[in-house]
Write a structure and sequence with these properties.
Layout: E1 2-7, H1 12-25, E2 29-35, E3 55-59, H2 65-74, E4 79-82, H3 89-94, H4 96-118, E5 130-136, H5 161-180, E6 184-189, E7 192-193, H6 202-211, E8 216-219, E9 225-227, E10 229-230, H7 231-244, E11 250-253, E12 258-260, H8 261-275, E13 291-294, H9 309-315, H10 323-336, H11 338-344, H12 348-357
Parallel strand pairs: 1-2, 1-4, 2-3, 4-5, 5-6, 6-11, 7-10, 8-13
Antiparallel strand pairs: 9-12
Bound molecules: nicotinamide-adenine-dinucleotide (NAD) and thymidine-5'-diphosphate.
Length: 360
Amino acid sequence: MRTYLVTGGAGFIGSNYIHYMFKKYGDSIRIINVDKLTYAGNLENLKDIEDRDNYTFIRADICDAEAINKIFEENDIDRVVHFAAESHVDRSIKHPMVFVKTNVLGTVTMLNAAKAAWELPDGTYKPDHKFLHVSTDEVYGSLSNPEDYFYETTKYDPHSPYSASKASSDFFVKAYMDTYKFPANITNCSNNYGPYQFPEKLIPLTINNALHGKALPIYGDGKNIRDWLYVEDHAKGIDMVQEEGKLFETYNIGGHNERQNIQIVKTIIKTLQELLPDDDPRKKNVSEDLITYVTDRKGHDRRYAIAPDKIKAEVGWYPETCFEEGIKKTVKWYLEHEEWIDHCVSGDYQKYYEDMYKNR
Ligand code: NAD
Ligand code: TYD
């Protein structure tokens, strides 16, 4: 039975990936989920699979070399899928150091542990053991020419502390592949959306605020463009890269769904108006009147857009979910899981919201 070590599996994409993998492989794989449970980690995301015999949760910090080495010593890990990271740009602007620690030092700790466990005396590695590093398109910087796209060959040009820390972690993975022939892949994906996303990111924050009749904050002129990828398509892409991709290669995973932020917010308002029943008192509050333009994010990248040509040609993956379908599924999921959001936004979230948006 193949054993996966998933880092950050209690977060947004990691928990969707674990659900996807159990749906696809059932009892034929084992998953060990290692997560520190920061503000972004939520075991409620995994409630329906937590009792499976082939699933184990371990609370640990990926910077803790002793704890991570122990997991490799006690388990024959075949695959690592490394999601754990600090992931929010706005937080990185306020508190860059935690991004350096988790995203850079944490990744190198994971690489060292896997290398020590998998390397054979002759410098080769146990057969069929692989590490996949999940990264972002933000490492490529901002596109100014509307005809340009991010390719795997695009020069790195990160601007935020978040993207700089992810770029640095990517370079460490590349360095381990080049120097030690360490068996890895890197995937750089565009903005994900879907179930279980923490409501600090644009889409769940907009849904949550709209349902509470609160202002919908739009940074700057609202015309910044992101390329939205439905999270389940991403989970499938990661699995396909690990199974069908060429080792040592980088693959960009994008949704071919470019939208301005203002379009996203207006689509969410329209979708909520469609999905909320007429007798729901919140329905009358959900309107474009809630849209509020606020001070722009510092160093705000204008446009991200991936050309997922390589992954399509070499791996056969393409984004299956169009934005209209994906956003409907997402809004529906949040409406059906209001308790989940309520738990997320209790406690520390209120303080975060004050810090980030008061007087903005
Ligand atoms: P998230 O913030 O929702 O989840 C991160 C998870 O990592 C949480 O469960 C958290 O508890 C855990 N974690 C944080 N620090 C840790 C540490 N030191 N040790 C162990 N666990 C720790 O993030 P996400 O949106 O699911 O992103 C997952 C990965 O995908 C990240 O590497 C991110 O950079 C990348 N990515 C995300 C997006 C996106 O749109 N969300 C886009 C491109 C790339
Ligand atoms: P976000 O979801 O934070 O993802 P990222 O910064 O990694 O792309 O933001 C998506 C876009 O939405 C980005 O251009 C910033 C913008 N944004 C707002 O306009 N208002 C908000 O309240 C948030 C959270 C983001």
